[in-house]
């Protein structure tokens, strides 16, 4: 540990200082894996030495909004220090109070469930007991709509520019001008004009050419589902714990090369893959499924796993990208029609695109991951620019 790191820790108040020391004794990585990360960790530990009051929670909530971890994109001593500094305040908040700072509540709950924290706080119980949050009854976040843009006032037309109204006779006075209903003839004409206007709008929206001469845009997921609509990327598990409320689920933090940090992903693999084999694992993730709540935790992707042709009990393995792959690298299907295609931004659950193409996902006798076209039986291996993705041991397995 650097001297600056040790100095920052020494300035923390007890028992936060002791808590950070216990965690960092178990690994150098908690001080930061790179020089720039180490500086960020030290900076946040120094900030955590200051007294946290309810008054600064709003500012901190805005800072934590895009973050999974406070200093880097993985768990560090900075998270331990901030957790300890926040504990005296957050542990006393009532639901109506922590609902107003949802990012802090989400961050604190995530950090307190980390295995290094739960192991380290054992000697300090009940000082750092588990704080319970009622997220199920949290009010929906109200997003302010942008104010309507003001229309610029058109310059008044000069008499020479004004076109005389074309009428077949003297116009009848409007009802608003006379205080009496418009004559029946005029009312019938107005209704006819409104009906024709609605018809014109409907024709434009129904696919006829608009004023610019262009046809109405076609939805990006129109047509038959194809595998290239699925967004596959290389992922790296930077943290994994067992779901506190579900025996069969893991909660992973997966680095997908995104600026917003790792995504939270929930996987039902506890009974098939030991947690030791999940840690620090590189894998292939499905990144454009609609986020789903899994026993109170929202999952923002899905790991691609191979299930033995003899069933789950015979084995499940994570599909592995080629050695040296980086988080966020594109994973695609071989074939001219797929290699340059752009995946959908998000799969529409109603169209069941993934469910339609998934039965063709398999591993070949070579254990290479592939999609086999059910109609033509053509084979399209799943790969990155550096090589084909594989299952460690399973051939003829289904992928999901």
Automatic annotation (TrEMBL):
Residues 226-332 form the TRNA-binding domain. Residues 198-208 have a biased composition (Basic and acidic residues). Residues 1-133 form the GST C-terminal domain. It comes from the Eukaryota. Keywords: RNA-binding, tRNA-binding. InterPro entries: Arc1-like_N, Glutathione-S-Trfase_C-like, Glutathione-S-Trfase_C_sf, NA-bd_OB-fold, tRNA-bd_dom, Tyrosine-tRNA_ligase_regulator. Residues 156-166 have a biased composition (Low complexity). GO terms for cellular component: methionyl glutamyl tRNA synthetase complex. GO terms for molecular function: tRNA binding. The keyword Transferase does not apply. Pfam families: Arc1p_N_like, tRNA_bind. Residues 141-223 are annotated as: Disordered. The keyword tRNA-binding applies. SUPFAM superfamilies: GST C-terminal domain-like (SSF47616), Nucleic acid-binding proteins (SSF50249). This is Nucleic acid-binding protein. It comes from Macrolepiota fuliginosa MF-IS2.
């Amino acid at each position: 540990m650097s001297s600056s790191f040790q100095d920052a820790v020494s300035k923390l108040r007890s028992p936060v200082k002791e808590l950070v020391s216990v965690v960092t004794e178990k690994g150098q990585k908690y001080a930061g894996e790179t020089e720039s990360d180490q500086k960020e960790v030290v900076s946040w530990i120094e900030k955590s030495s200051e007294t946290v009051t309810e008054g600064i929670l709003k500012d901190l909530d805005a800072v934590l909004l895009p973050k999974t971890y406070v200093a880097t994109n993985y768990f560090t001593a900075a998270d331990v220090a901030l957790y300890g500094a926040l504990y005296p305040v957050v542990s006393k908040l009532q639901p109506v109070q922590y609902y107003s700072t949802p990012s802090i509540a989400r961050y604190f709950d995530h950090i307190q469930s980390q295995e290094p924290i739960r192991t380290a706080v054992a000697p300090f119980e009940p000082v750092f007991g588990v704080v319970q949050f009622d997220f199920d009854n949290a009010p929906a976040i109200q997003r302010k709509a942008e104010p309507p843009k003001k229309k610029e006032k058109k310059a008044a037309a000069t008499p020479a520019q004004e076109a005389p109204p074309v009428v077949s006779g003297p116009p009848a006075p409007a009802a608003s001008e006379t205080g009496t209903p418009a004559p029946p003839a005029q009312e019938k004409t107005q209704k006819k004009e409104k009906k024709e206007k609605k018809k014109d709008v409907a024709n434009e929206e129904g696919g006829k050419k608009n004023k610019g001469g262009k046809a109405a845009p076609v939805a990006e997921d129109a047509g038959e589902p194809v595998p290239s609509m699925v967004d596959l990327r290389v992922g790296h598990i930077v943290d994994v714990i067992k779901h506190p409320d579900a025996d069969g689920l893991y909660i992973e933090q997966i680095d997908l090369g995104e600026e917003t940090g790792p995504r939270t992903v929930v996987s039902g693999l506890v009974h098939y893959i030991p947690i030791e084999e999940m840690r620090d694992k590189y894998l292939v993730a499905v990144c454009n499924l609609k986020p789903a709540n899994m026993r109170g935790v929202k999952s923002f992707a899905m790991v691609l796993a191979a299930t033995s042709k003899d069933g789950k009990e015979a084995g499940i393995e994570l599909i592995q990208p080629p050695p040296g792959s980086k988080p966020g690298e594109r994973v695609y299907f071989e074939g001219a029609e797929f290699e340059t295609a752009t995946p959908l931004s998000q799969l529409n659950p109603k169209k069941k695109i993934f469910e339609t193409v998934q039965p063709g996902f398999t591993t070949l006798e070579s254990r290479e991951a592939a999609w086999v076209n059910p109609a033509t039986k053509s084979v399209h291996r799943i790969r990155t620019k550096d090589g084909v993705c594989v299952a460690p041991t399973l051939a003829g397995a289904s992928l999901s």
